[in-house]
Amino acid sequence: MKLIQSLTIATTIAVSNGFSQSPQPISRRDAVSNSLASIVAISLPGAANAIQACPPGSKNCLRQTWTPPSTTSAADAVSELREALNAYPQEGQEDGKVDGGGYTIVSDTLDSSGSIALEYRSSGKGTFAKLFNGGKPFVDDFLIESNGSAFEFRSSSRVGDSDFGVNGKRLIYIAGLLKEKGWRGVGL
């Protein structure tokens, strides 16, 4: 019954979207294709919390999925994740060359909706910050969301085409802490 309801809703949305976006009617093939995509999105657990994909070929955005050991409870997994995030040095890495401006937790709903958002800042003292950003720090966004049994990580720069490996270094540091606790990563 749920499948039929989902199909009806998805088809209605797909057809109405097709007509509302252009004056031309949508083909049956497009309507069915959009309906099937909508059904998959509605049916999959955790699809509502899916982190936005990095743009193709991006040099300043990385995604990873981390899974705690199967014997770890959800509450303990959240606790271990918070410990790893809080263990990241506020002064950054490599004598402040990576995240030298520290980080801030922007929102933390890991206990309720399963997500946490952080901002990491460069020191603002580097040549590129001085030349291209008025001496202000570059800001990166780091988002973690639960997809049920694992956590999806996305670290990305707000501006620019390259981050000189900063997002990768950040993820490697946090990944090392999680590996010590038995977590497994995908997308490394």
Describe this entry's structure for a reader:
The structure is a single chain. With about 190 residues, the chain is α+β, with helices and mostly antiparallel strands. Helix content is about 40%, strand content about 20%. It has helices spanning about 1-20, 30-45, 75-85, 125-130, 165-180, and strands at about 60-65, 105-110, 115-120, 140-145, 150-155, 185. A six-stranded antiparallel beta sheet has the order 2-3-4-5-1-6, with helices on one face. A hairpin with a 6-residue loop joins strand 2 (about 105-110) and strand 3. Helix 1 crosses helix 2 (about 30-45) and helix 3 (about 75-85) packs across helix 5 (about 165-180). The radius of gyration is 20 Å and the shape is globular. The two termini are about 40 Å apart. Mean pLDDT is about 80; it is low at about 1-25 and about 30-50.
Shape: globular
Average pLDDT, to the nearest integer? Answer: 80
Q: What is the number of beta strands?
A: 6
Secondary-structure element series: HHEHEEHEEHE
Span between termini? 40 Å
What is the count of helical runs? 5
- Radius of gyration, in Å, reads 20 Å
- Helical coverage, percent range: 25-40%
Uncertain stretches:
1-23, 31-48
Strand order of the largest sheet: 2-3-4-5-1-6
- Structural class call reads alpha+beta
Largest sheet: 6 strands, antiparallel
Strand content: 15-25%
